[in-house]
Amino acid sequence: MKQHIWGCLLAASACLPMCAAAQEIKGKTVSKVTARVVRADNLIVTDDKGGWFGSGLTMQQLGGWDTAYEVQARLRVVSTTGRFRVRMDEPLDIRTQAKPAVVFRSPAVSLGAEGAERKPLVVGHGVDFQNPAAPLPNVDSEGYYNLAVSAYPPVGDFKSTAGTYTGTLSLVFEPLVAKP
After folding, report:
1. What pLDDT does residue 156 have?
2. 73: number of Cβ within 10 Å
3. Which domains are present in the chain?
């Protein structure tokens, strides 16, 4: 019986707001709201198709045994300011897991605007780049860049150096802001 009474009281209390009388609001009922929207600065780096290199990049040795392994990639950079800096975060280290002491020699990384000379990227030194001008005001600029990576194979004969090698290229892209 207690549960039945308790349930009825709960149901009645839930209906109370529906029984309340309507009230008339007097005074100011309209307000003007003003907002200023500031466009965020973008610096978006992708492959040339708008994605990324999900399976990595594969280096190839196109010359003889003593020539460097190489790979090139086309990057797309979308930037609000049009200016950015690129630096290597850490040295490129290409090695095999089977023999960690066996590493590629003299790795070199360079980046350049499409149709321009590539600039070498090294740890601790940033290189500045400038996108082409944006086509319209208040539109981000878009530029295409060629990334090149090369390294010489490890010292030794084919039998002692054969294997699958991997490495991580860590680049930092930083927007540059013009002084006001």
Report:
1. 86
2. 15
3. 43-175 (2.60.40.2040)
Nearest to 76 by CA among 110, 40, 114, 102: 114
Closest among 128, 109, 24 to 59, alpha carbons compared? 109
User: Of 104, 101, 83, 82, which Cα lies nearest the Cα of 93?
Assistant: 104
pLDDT per residue rounded down to tens, the chain (180 residues): 566 565 655 666 666 555 556 777 777 778 888 888 877 788 999 999 989 888 889 999 988 888 999 999 999 999 999 999 999 999 999 998 888 888 999 999 999 999 999 999 999 899 999 999 988 988 999 999 999 999 999 988 888 888 899 999 999 999 988 665
Q: Are 84 and 129 in contact (CB under 8 A)?
A: yes
Question: For the residues of the chain, what is the DSSP string, one character each?
Answer: -HHHHHHHHHHHHHHHHHHSPP----S---------PPPPP-EEEEETTSS--TT----EE-S-TTSPEEEEEEEEEEESSSEEEEEESS----EESSSTT-B-EEEEEEEEETTS--EEEBBTB-EEEEPPPPSSTTS-EEEEEEEEEEEEPPSS-HHHH-S-EE----EEEEE-----
